[in-house]
Amino acid sequence: MRGLLIFLLLLAPPAGAQTLIAAHTIRARAILGPEDLSTIKARVPGALSEASEALGQEARVVLYAGRPIRSGDVGPPALVDRNQRVKLAYRRGGLMIRAEGRALGRGGVGDAIRVMNTDSRSTVSGVVQADGSVAVGAGQ
Asked: pLDDT tens across 8-53, in order?
């Protein structure tokens, strides 16, 4: 009996524990604002617990009302859309090569995407930078 009591106490959420949930159904690619978020007094493993972790982020998937928001469900807003022209930058030591490409996916700052170099028609992978360019190669 004592073991059961200890087990139940371990399952109980800590005082003040909360989980972030969607206040209403939110479509993918929507930017989250304060009106989109709510909290419940429970701790769901893997779910966000603070509104500050999701405010201003982009929904990567449809978020359904009342369901917990997990860290993989949101991310930085996309700066680059599919088929958008982007600047490619390869940097290694003192060497800097710039080219123009076409994004084959969409992504936000820090996301890895594939880009086709419009001159050579070769496909490269790179990381989206804050200015909307894509860093490729060793200096990513």
From this structure: 444 554 555 899 999 999 999 999 999 999 999 999 999 999 999 9
Q: Which residues contact 51 (CB under 8 A, 6 or more apart)?
A: 20, 34, 37, 39
Q: Where would I find the beta strands (DSSP E) of the chain? A: 19-22, 37-40, 58-59, 74-75, 78-80, 85-92, 95-103, 107-108, 112-117, 123-128, 134-136
Closest CA to 85 of 134, 22, 48: 134
Interstrand relation of 107-108 and 78-80 (parallel, antiparallel or unpaired):
antiparallel
| CATH code of the domain occupying 78-139 | 2.30.30.760
CATH number of the 13-75 domain = 3.90.1210.10
The H or E element spanning position 3 is helix 2-11
Q: Which two tokens stand for residue 39?
A: 């909290």
Residue 118: how many CB atoms within 10 A of its CB? 13
Kindly report the pTM of this predicted structure.
Answer: 0.67
β-strand 78-80 against 37-40: which pairing, if any? Answer: unpaired
